[in-house]
Specification:
There is one protein chain. This protein is mainly α. The protein has one helix spanning 17-54, and strands spanning 80-82, 87-89. It contains 1 helix and 2 strands. Strand 1 and strand 2 form a beta hairpin. It is rod-shaped, with a radius of gyration of 28 Å.
Length: 90
Amino acid sequence: MSYQAKTNWAFNDPVTEYDINRWEQGIADAHAQISVLTADVSNLKTRMNTLEATLPDGFTRNNFNDDLATVSSITVIRGYYNEAQSRLEV
């Protein structure tokens, strides 16, 4: 049973057992939804961290995927040449 809101409260309406059960169901539904959303946010955070880790400058510049293994002479002015990965990291 999902939460069914009562939107037509009157000033002197009594609060019944049904109303309290309905509220408790709403609280239970909200906690279940929070668990689902927490897992989704955690998954998205992991995916975003992985994506950012592949781009050394955090999306501020174009990501060039050039293989520098065949380059025999290069001078790095800015950044770092990662010899093990054969790539220039900025």
